[in-house]
Design a protein that fits this description.
The protein is an all-alpha fold. The protein is built from 14 helices and no strands. It has one domain.
Length: about 300
């Protein structure tokens, strides 16, 4: 047996494109089977449909860089997962008829992000090893932005079934705060020499961090002061602010704004996005605990 194993070139086998694609589909099929048996949380239509719609934004780069677009899609999986989670959270809070209906929908506050993390890991199996830097012309950047503008209402419609409810996802105070953060990043000394897209990429994480931390602080203040108005305002401002920041990350990464970073820096960005989102949701919109389940 040892002699047989020694004859096998494990690196050659693992580097085979056929083997990696086979493992990719096996893992994806296994995830689908487990999720279906668990009641379709990840592959719920309110999770998978908007996720796939938003994936079209980075996927459109296939027209310019071919199959290397897989790398862009992989890097966008985390922001897309967060955006879909927040779309479901806003839709749920807008339609909430009872506490039980809120708890029933809470799986969609986490499942799309879980799918994004899993898909990001799986796509690394099949992404091309050679990656060219993505350089878009001003026209291509504007076209990408237009595609994002069209994809967001389409994703909202896939969740709510009503295109007019896109208005629920517009919040002027959050937009103004986002604009201020963007201006700070635009003139920030450490970002000198960065392109506008690269600065937008940096601003996206700064936005998610700001809305998460400040949102939790104001949320606690609202409960301590007993102000329902503060709690409601903070909820809308923070949820939509984090969503806007994640959408900027989606756009910036799709436009090549992450290409100047190392692999470790890109991974750090992903984990920061995940950490800030989960930190906010677990405090502001916590799920029932084990003690609650057993009374």
């Amino acid at each position: 047996m040892d002699n047989l194993i020694s004859r096998l070139d494990l690196d050659h086998i693992s580097n085979s494109l056929i083997v990696r694609w086979t493992v990719f589909f096996i893992a994806l099929g296994a995830l689908a089977r487990v999720d279906i048996d668990a009641g379709r949380m990840i592959f719920n239509e309110d999770s998978i449909y908007p996720f796939l719609i938003l994936t079209l934004v980075p996927l459109c780069s296939i027209l310019k860089i071919g199959w290397q677009a897989i790398s862009l899609v992989r890097r966008c999986c985390i922001p897309i997962g967060i955006v879909v989670c927040l779309m479901n959270a806003v839709a749920t809070l807008s339609d909430m008829s009872s506490v039980q209906s809120f708890f029933d929908a809470q799986k969609l506050f986490y499942a799309p992000l879980a799918f994004g993390i899993f898909l990001s890991f799986l796509l690394s199996l099949i992404e091309p090893k050679t990656k060219d830097e993505l350089n878009l012309s001003p026209f291509e950047i504007c076209s990408l932005y237009l595609l994002l503008i069209l994809a967001v209402p389409a994703a909202v419609f896939s969740i709510t079934g009503d295109i007019t409810r896109t208005n629920q996802f517009l919040h002027v105070p959050a937009m103004m705060t986002l604009l201020v953060i963007g201006l700070i990043c635009f003139v920030y000394p450490d970002f000198q020499g960065y392109t506008l897209i690269q600065k937008a990429y940096k601003a996206s994480l700064a936005s998610v961090m700001t809305f998460s931390c400040y949102g939790v602080a104001l949320h606690i203040y609202g409960f301590v002061s007993g102000s329902q108005e503060v709690i409601t305002s903070v909820m809308a401002n923070s949820l939509l602010g984090i969503m806007y920041g994640s959408l900027i990350a989606l756009f910036a990464i799709s436009a090549g704004g992450q290409s100047f970073q190392t692999k470790d820096q890109k991974t750090f960005f992903d984990w920061c996005m995940i950490g800030f989102y989960v930190f906010f949701v677990l405090i502001v919109l916590p799920p029932p605990s084990l003690l609650d389940a057993f009374g």
